[in-house]
Amino acid sequence: MKLFGQNSLSPVIGKARYADFSCAAVSICLFLLFWQFSSALFPRARLIPPPTTVIPAFIRSFYEPIGSETMPGHIFRSLYRVFLGFSLASVTGVTLGILSGRNRLANAIINPFIEILRPIPGIAWIPIAILWFGTGENGKVFILFIASFTIIAANTHDGARHVDPELVGAARMMGASSTRIFFTVVLPCCVPQVFTGLQIGLTINFMTVVAAEMIRSRSGLGWVVSTGNDSGNMTQVMVGLVAIGIIGFALSSLLRLAEKRLLIWNAN
Amino acid sequence: MERELICCNGLTKSYAGRRVLDGVSLRLGQNEFVSVLGPGKCGKTTLIKLLSGLERPDAGEVFMDGAAVSSPSPKRGVVYQNTLLFNWLTVLGNVRYPLRKLGRQESLSRAMKYIELMGLKGFEKAYPRQLSGGMKQRCGIARIYAMKPRVIFMDEPFSQLDAQTRYLMQLELEKIFLGEGQSVLFVSNNIEEAVYLSDRIVVLSPSPSRVVKEFRLDLPRPRNYLSPEFVRIRAEIERCLSEVCDG
Asked: Looking at the structure, do residues A38 and A62 belong to the same domain, yes or no?
């Protein structure tokens, strides 16, 4: 009884990816060359130290402390703050989003707050954070939390709201209880949008932590930049910027990798 | 007809003031294959939603084994036009979804049996997006057959397939039907397909729909698309449908 032939799933070929990677490497090298020469040629570019100064300084920062910490220490400080604020924001945002997306009354209550809080940038909360929590860690976590939980909630809400009712009907037809439907149909349907929210939230959090550290802090990547500025040390400013760029890139790549693993069923 | 399994009387349903069904009455016997034919949007999908209990009629009632139907149940399986597979589950996961109450081993072996039967062996670990339209539809059918419902409602399951795949699916469906002895209510807009598969064909009018005619087919199986009886009854139903559409 075999009317249909069997063919295997098409294999994924990684050659194009390798080409992309080499192109990116070449273009970065070209940019470094351009930076090096322009800082020798143009007066305005001369205000910034060239790569031959910044790159060794960047490497040095990993064993010679800037302020009280070496670079890994600063990175750890910043990431730890992001981790705390982002975790709080994720749990709160996803919960609120699912509540408001699945329940009309909950939506009427929650949604206005989300929409009004959403456009307020995290750093605008700094005065209130200082008033409530002082200048310590808690204030920063609060700022990070309030900067990103709304966007996570809004995205989750969208996902939860647009779960196909026919899919829920199909699950009922197959005898699933409402609890089972929630966990096996509603939640998986939301996951792609939740990830979009988390992605945006994490980016916002990383930008916010740097900004918050530039204002009130004794460590962290933002602090490296702002104290460099205070002491007129442009090399330190550049080292800070390079670190922020690399870590930010690494963070979003990590999340994208997690998404790919988790959402293997979702096209692209 | 053998023992009566599903019976509905005077089913009426409107959406947003527009009447879709206007007093549809049907009967489906044990081990019977009945097709419902009708022009374009004549409320065939609505009829399946009411019969399976996914939606309630405005008037009229549905009975299964003499008991009123008020909510969906695994006793009444539905194969959907757009498959409605769970994209986040593999083929195996989808087919096992309704089998949770069975033991681990039993659900696995039963799911594998129907996956194999529908020619999906080797694709158990594939996700729906990796499958072709015909394979998805076969997965949807395997899922429902594995559930072993008393009756299966099929809502134009082959309408989105190409002609060749459609033909193969018809053969496959007949084999399974004869082998498993399930009752099937098959909604279609393809006369040939209905004549090939059905014991009985019910023709609906355009919406608001009601039953206009019923045909009993006593041709021996497997049927020959080109036999004189097949062609004759096909023409008769075609005439009936075009009259219905004009009148």
From this structure: no
